[in-house]
């Protein structure tokens, strides 16, 4: 299992919420995100899960302009290349 930074995990989840699963609930997007982590043998710290979830929630609640700014800042999440 690989350990990765909280920032990389949050970026990936925000990307999942806004790009990969835009029409799914946050919970469904989180399950898809978690499945990806398991498949790629990425080991997030348990205490970070709520912070990651809240990052996705904030992204989902942001205005379209704010969402575009977030996506430009994130770009292609580093964890997608694992």
Description:
- This protein has one domain.
- It is 65% helix and 0% strand.
- The chain has helices at 6-20, 26-39, 49-61, 64-74.
- The model has no long low-confidence stretch (mean pLDDT 91).
- Helix 1 (6-20) packs parallel to helix 3 and helix 1 packs across helix 4 (64-74).
- It has 82 residues and is mainly alpha-helical.
**Mean of the pLDDT scores?**
91
Report how far apart the termini are: 12 Å
Provide the number of structural domains: 1
Return Rg in Å: 12 Å
Q: How is the main sheet built? A: none
Helix content percent band: 55-70%
Helix and strand composition category: mainly alpha
Overall, the morphology is globular
Question: How many helical elements?
Answer: 4
Strand content: under 5%
Order of helices and strands: HHHH
- Quaternary organisation: single chain
How many DSSP-defined strands? Answer: 0
Spans where pLDDT lies below 50 across 5 or more residues: none
Short description:
The chain is mainly α and 82 residues long. The chain has helices at residues 6-20, 26-39, 49-61, 64-74. The mean pLDDT is 91.
């Amino acid at each position: 299992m690989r350990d990765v930074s909280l920032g990389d995990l949050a970026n990936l989840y925000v990307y999942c919420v806004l790009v990969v699963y835009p029409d799914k609930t946050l919970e469904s997007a989180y399950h898809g995100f978690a499945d990806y982590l398991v498949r790629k043998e990425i080991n997030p710290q348990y205490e970070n899960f709520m912070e990651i979830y809240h990052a996705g929630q904030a992204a989902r609640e942001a205005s379209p302009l704010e969402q575009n700014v977030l996506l430009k800042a994130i770009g292609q999440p580093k964890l997608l290349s694992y």
